[in-house]
Amino acid sequence: MNPSAQNGRGTSPQEARKRLMEGNVRFSTGKMTHPGNSPERRAEIAKGQHPFAVVVGCSDSRVPPELLFDQGLGDLFVVRLAGNILSDEALGSIEYAVDHLNVRYLMVLGHQRCGAVEAAVKGGHAEGQIGSLLRAVGPAVQKAGGMAGDRVENIVVANVGLIVDRLKTSPPILKDLVEKGELVIEGARYDLEEGTVKIVQ
Ligand SMILES: [Zn+2]
Question: What is the CA(111)–ligand 1 centre distance, in A?
């Protein structure tokens, strides 16, 4: 059965994670089914959407969630800014998906060699509003400060963790549902070379 023919409404957090991870296995092993792209699916969801997961990802052209997780139209509610950071508008978009569309699983997806993280590590002057992106990654640069290993990779994971924490404690919508056990928020990292997503928080 085409998994994307399912309605996302009522999908448990555990089932949502399973659907994402199974899709990522198809993608990383070259066995994509490219579900949910048919005219029938388009017509089915034209009058309303019931996505089964929210993905907060990076704008990087190499990490589109629908492709990495082999999902189709109407499956994922995606919020993307460079560095998979949050803004008030991004948070509002996430809250809309949880409160109005009843999505109960949220993944923050960082990735290997994130350019926003590399730029934040490099420092120096940034033109235009690019500096606001680098400042948003700043707390992760601090957090990963003394860690052994690859600095950029450490910050990528630290950044995911900080964003997960911020979302889990964001009142009133997200915090309340997380505390009631009705909403699951996890962090993950995407490997550019392997094509694999692994939960890191
Ligand atoms: Zn990135």
Answer: 6
Q: Are 60 and 111 in contact (CB under 8 A)?
A: yes
pLDDT tens per residue across span 52-98: 999 999 999 999 999 999 999 999 999 999 999 999 999 999 999 99
Question: What CA–CA distance (Å, rounded) separates 160 from 74?
Answer: 25
Extract the tokens encoding 83.
């560095």
| pTM for the model | 0.95
User: And the tokens for 43?
Assistant: 């017509």
Q: Within 13 Å of residue 50, how many CA atoms lie on the same side as its CB?
A: 13
**Token pair 């907060």: residue:** 56
- Cα 46 to ligand 1 centroid, rounded to whole Å: 31
Strand 76-80 relative to strand 105-111, pairing: unpaired
Sign of CA dihedral 110, 111, 115, 118: positive
Fold of domain 3-199: Beta-carbonic Anhydrase; Chain A (3.40.1050)
| pLDDT value of residue 125 | 87
Contact 2, 33 (CB under 8 A): yes
| Span from the CA of 103 to the centroid of ligand 1 (angstroms) | 24
Tell me the average pLDDT of the chain: 95
Structure tokens that stand for 114 in this block = 């994130």
